[in-house]
Structure formats: C-alpha cells, structure tokens
Amino acid sequence: MEEQTPVDEQEEAVLAKKGQEVLDKLYSSALNGIPMVSGSIDDLVEDYLSKHGTIEEAVAALVRAQSVKCGTSGFIAGFGGFIALPVMIPANVSSVFYVQMRMIAAIAKMGGYDVRSDQIKTQIYVCLTGTSVADLLKDAGIKAGEQAARSAIKKIPGAVLTKINQRIGFRFITKFGEKGVINLGKCVPLVGAVIGGGMDVASTRIVGKRAIAEFIA
C-alpha cells in the first residue's frame, strides 16, 4: 500500500479554509433555505412540532423523513445545481450533506438552542463530521474530556471558534481524497460508507442519533 504524503502547513491552511467555506455555505443554506427547493429552518421546525405531540416525537419523525429523502435518487438528481459550493463536490454528496446539516440544525432548534450562534454552529459541524470535540479543543490548546469539552465549547470566544471550525473544515475536506488532495473518484461520506441510496439512509440515521444525543437527550 502506498503511503500518504503528509500535508505541509501551507497546504493544510488552504484546505482548512476551503473546508470551512464548504461548511459555512451548507450551514447558511440549511438555515435560510434554497429558493424553490426548501424553506427556512424555522419553517421546518414549526412544521414538525405542529404535527407531533412532543419534541421527541417530532425529532424522530424528522430523522425518518430526512433519511428517506437522502435515499431517494430522484431527490438527489433534482438537487443538482442548487448548491454552488466553493470546491467541486459531486451533487449527490453535497445534497446529502445539505439535508444532514439541515436536520441537525432543526434538532438543535427543537432542543431550544440558538442555531444562529457561533458556538452552536460549531457543535452542529461536529455532529455532521463525527469529529471529537475533545480533540478539537486540544488542537486549540484546551485540554478537556469529551463531556467537559461539550460544555466548554459554549464559552469559547469567536476567534478561537474560527480556528476550531477551520480544523473541522480540514478534516471535512480531506475526507474526499488522499494525500490531502480532493479526489472526486473516491468520495466517501464522513461516517465511512460509500455514497449510495441505502448507505445515505444509514449515514443520515447515524448523524440524526448523534444530533439527538447532543441537543435533545
């Protein structure tokens, strides 16, 4: 097996910035909606809460519906040019991440969190990528266990959060390639399964459970 060439600091900084741009674009679209495709996150949350008796029931229904949506080939194909990301990620991959990001944000809002705050945005990024909060804080020079890290991240100032988001962005973008280079022929979602209808459903359920544990349970 060919060894991967380490990414130098300059290349890592470029990839981290690109990764954060992708995540920020997804997040903005998730909250505000996409014309003729989806409404705002407020509308999504209100719709599910109005149809179910408890927050837990609404969240469970949301995860089921978004999982099915990610597994529908017609939805993926129709999503195509609606999300113009700063880097070239295939439409089926970007649309799945969009649905998952939107689902996590809705769960956080149902749990009473301010999804417009920088701290909660970072927590949502963590849920999407499956990144360890403790590892991220360690990169920022803060040592804490996973539970303590989740509490600590809510008090971190914006400048430090930006650095953390860039670390998440780097991990996000390098998942798409080898040797730190984006390789569109070998794209995999962040939960480790090959993109495809059935695997998209499974990955979305995993992300949903992670979000419930973070913002509801």
Explain this structure to me?
The structure is a single chain. Strand 1 and strand 2 form a beta hairpin. The chain is mainly α. It has one domain. Helix 2 crosses helix 5, helix 5 packs parallel to helix 10 and helix 6 packs across helix 10. The radius of gyration is 17 Å and the shape is globular. It contains ten helices and two strands; from the N terminus they run H-H-H-H-H-H-H-H-H-E-E-H. The termini are far apart.
Give a topology summary.
Blueprint: H1 9-32, H2 41-51, H3 55-70, H4 73-79, H5 91-110, H6 118-129, H7 133-139, H8 146-152, H9 158-174, E1 177-178, E2 181-182, H10 197-215
Antiparallel strand pairs: 1-2
Helix pairs in contact: 1-5, 1-9, 2-3, 2-5, 3-5, 3-10, 5-6, 5-10, 6-9, 6-10, 7-8
How many helices? The count is 10
Helix/strand-derived category reads mainly alpha
Global mean pLDDT: 76
Poorly predicted regions: 177-195
Order of helices and strands: HHHHHHHHHEEH
Percent of residues in helices comes to 55-70%
* Distance linking N and C termini: 42 Å
Give the overall silhouette. Answer: globular
Strand line-up in the sheet with most strands: 1-2
Strand content: under 5%
Q: What's the gyration radius in Å?
A: 17 Å
What is the domain total for the residues? 1
Q: What is the tally of beta strands?
A: 2
What does the largest sheet look like?
Answer: 2 strands, antiparallel
